[in-house]
Amino acid sequence: MYNLARELLFKLSPETSHELSIDLIGAAGRLGLAGRLTKAPSSLPVTVMGLQFANPVGLAAGLDKNGDAIDGFAQLGFGFVEIGTVTPRPQPGNPKPRLFRLPEAEAIINRMGFNNHGVDHLLARVQAAKYRGVLGINIGKNFDTPVERAVDDYLICLDKVYAHASYVTVNVSSPNTPGLRSLQFGDSLKQLLDALHKRQNELALSHGRRVPLAIKIAPDMTDEETVQVATALLETGMDAVIATNTTLSREGVESLAFANEAGGLSGAPVRDKSTHTVSVLAGELGGRLPIIAAGGITEGRHAAEKIAAGASLVQIYSGFIYKGPALIREAVDAIAAARR
How far apart, in whole angstroms, are the C-alpha atoms of residue 167 and residue 149? Predict the structure, then answer.
């Protein structure tokens, strides 16, 4: 059934089919019908960051930027749902076209540029949703906020989403907002994380609960840089790391149509880079900080490989586009089988 739907959707432009899919999944969720589109995954509860997840396979940020289809995605069987990236103010993102399929490689290139309706719109959608499972909210900075003042945007978003999120992801690794990735390094990273941790403690006191903070990083760092990031995360009291965002590399897709388009590459070609990053992080963190793995999961066994590399949870995005909701169940089953 999904193969037929994908064939029809792939006749449309990538962004049009994306928007239509979100509308359809959102409508199915509001009607309570999305769960009928696929067989539910097996129960595989896991506790990470002090949160109870129905299963370790989640929706990665970027697919539902504005929280318009939370109930629909949850009903498809995801163990957790992450929405965003959201910014303090609405912004249109980069000029179109900005989303490209590379079906031969099960890959996608995007340079969306944090297009979203702003944090207030997202919170209205969260409050309208019936879902009560683990909800992550991914936050970023507006494109016209200078990198030197990026912390202001992150704190605005953190203040607003704190009461509504199970955990908050800080996106410092999108390649499509100028200067953003510089926040992953050295003093810039330390200052950002220190400010976030301080505000997290203040909000925990005022709200009576502690909402974990996860930092999402890129796959394009050297091993030494990844180790430095891991050290900074430990020193600043972060709660998790998400590895990884999209890559600027075009290794493995050089000859394909659209390979020269600017933007981040996701899907199968980023799998090995992302898994390697997970391994490096796991070696440095030694279980002191949980890792959420994302990048290139297009089959169930790829999810199990991420867990074997040191991840506690996994997320899918491009694999969902190419394989549909059956991939959720397949990934849960593969992780369960690997544990036996």
Answer: 23
What is the chain's pLDDT, residue by residue, as a tens digit (340 residues)?
799 999 999 999 999 999 999 999 999 999 999 999 899 999 999 999 999 999 999 999 999 999 999 999 999 999 999 999 999 999 999 999 999 999 999 999 999 999 999 999 999 999 999 999 999 999 999 999 999 999 999 999 999 999 999 999 999 999 999 999 999 999 999 999 999 999 999 999 999 999 999 999 999 999 999 999 999 999 999 999 999 999 999 999 999 999 999 999 999 999 999 999 999 999 999 999 999 999 999 999 999 999 999 999 999 999 999 999 999 999 999 999 999 8
**1-339: CATH number:** 3.20.20.70
65 is known to lie in a ligand binding site:
yes
46, with CB counted inside 10 A (0-12, 13-18, 19+), is middle
Q: What are phi and psi of 272, to 5 degrees?
A: -65, -40
Domain boundaries, the chain: 1-339
Q: In angstroms, rounded to a whole number, what is the distance separating the alpha carbons of residues 242 and 222?
A: 16
116 is annotated as contributing to ligand binding: no
Query: Is 118 part of any known ligand binding site?
Result: no
Per-state percent for the chain, helix, strand, coil, to nearest 5: 45, 15, 35
Closest CA to 211 of 279, 270, 135: 135
3/309 Cα distance (integer angstroms): 31
End-to-end CA gap in the chain: 31
239 is annotated as contributing to ligand binding: no
Residues annotated as part of the active site: 174
